[in-house]
Amino acid sequence: MKQVNYDLLIIGGGFAGSTAAWHLANKGLKILLIDSKPWSRIGDKPCGDAVSKEHFDNLGMPYPEGEQLEQKIEGIKLYSPDMSTEWTVKGEGFEINAPAYTQRLLKEAQDRGVEVMDLTTAMKPIFQDGYVKGAVIFDRRKEEQIEVNAKIVIEATGYSRSFRSKLPQELPVAEDMDEKDSDIAYREVAYTRSDIEEPTYLKIFINQTTSPGGYWWYFPKGKDKVNIGLGIQGGMGYPSIYTFYEKYWKDYGADVDRSRMIVKGGALVPTRRPLDTLVWNGVIVIGDSGYTANPVHGGGKGSAMISGFCAARAVLNAFEKGDFSANSLWETNICYNDRYGAKQASLELFRRFLQKLSDDDINYGMRKKVIREEDLLEASTTGDLQLSVADKAIRVIAGIGRPSLLYKLKNVAQYMKDVKALYKNYPTSPEGLGQWRSNVRQLISEFDKVVSK
Ligand SMILES: Cc1cc2nc3c(=O)[nH]c(=O)nc-3n(C[C@H](O)[C@H](O)[C@H](O)COP(=O)(O)OP(=O)(O)OC[C@H]3O[C@@H](n4cnc5c(N)ncnc54)[C@H](O)[C@@H]3O)c2cc1C
Description:
This protein is of the alpha/beta class. The chain contains twelve helices and 16 strands. The strands form two sheets. Strands 1, 2, 6, 7, 8, 9, 15 and 16 form an eight-stranded mixed beta sheet that branches. An eight-stranded mixed beta sheet has the order 3-5-4-11-12-13-10-14. Helix 5 (301-321) packs antiparallel against helix 7 (331-356) and helix 11 (403-424) packs antiparallel against helix 12 (433-452). The longest helix is centred in the C-terminal third of the chain and has 26 residues, at 331-356. Flavin-adenine dinucleotide binds at residues 11-17, 34-37, 42, 45-51, 121-122, 156-158, 160, 162-163, 185, 187, 229, 267, 269, 287-288, 293, 298-302, 304.
């Protein structure tokens, strides 16, 4: 078999992999990025395509522009199940053309020295002496297998986890997940019959009947084009996602002209805390493969970028030290948990709580402001659910109709704080991982008992 040597192999050119490549290009490393898809389809996956502006700012990445940008966003409108309450949460963002933006990042990385091979799949890891040392890849153009030896492999294979799932199962980065910690989602992009009233606002509809454990969305892509879809909780034995779509799409997108559909499709998204460790000897896992999506809304593009950024920093430092061990790559975890992972852990608990609420509870909670827009914004930005003292009286009065809801909410807020604190004290080296992991699991199992009461 043909053999080639690289410093770094990146498997997967989605938002996570292309971000890592973009940050690492032109830094003196010999890098190969591979993706199974043809170049023109890289970045093309079922998605709502909404990304908050802050991610680009925080990571020093270019804003989408030209054909990469479909709509500038000013905020989100959130609707209660009975549609009687509408909340507006302000926040700038973009409705993007994901393939165009991803391919732009890849092209810029390629122009600065990263080799990109499309139509090329990682078949299996090369694993020796406890280290990931590369991958056997298959080049579909030449129909040949190639052994790629690399000091570090970045696995960015999305929800498929198609590389790390073939590693020895005892490695912490091979950690599997419970299907209930995922969302099954489906969307269609189509033209509308008339101009969209407020194209700068994303609309989200919460309803446990039409989207159990998830929500419906209506995301404008310009004045007469929309991305409309829904997510439902995985592992629950619900009917197929298409059944829900066909039954309820008119409730949320009466103006959608399905005869002028541009694209449709479904996929899964992880809705949990990140992998306990994103790294091991010679390997870093990023993006959906590392469970980096937001547990409450399932948005994963911004956090895939954060994980790619953190991985890139760790790779550069590892090459400076000439050390590719888990210990050396560990700073990926510290960087990621500090920027996003701690919030994710806290929001995983919030998501578990929300999924257990009935439509009645949500209608009541939104109408009476047991939780308010500001709380939601705060929770989604920082992962903190602050139930401030000044508002206590109002909340107690609001909660009188549903004392158990208010009681649970207070408990949830405390557990969210506790799990976030655990993540803020993430171990500084792999030695501390075992004890820390058991503390996290214990806290989550206690939380589940309290919330299911
Ligand atoms: C319906 C739906 C709606 C969503 N809406 C939003 C939203 O509005 N906003 C948001 O931010 N997020 C949203 N998400 C989540 C978001 O799409 C993902 O979190 C994000 O795209 C993950 O990026 P990634 O790079 O990790 O993975 P991916 O984009 O899946 O990229 C993985 C890449 O790896 C390649 N690959 C896989 N295995 C191999 C292999 N063995 N060899 C070579 N290549 C391989 C694939 O071809 C692919 O290109 C949504 C998800 C779904 C399913």
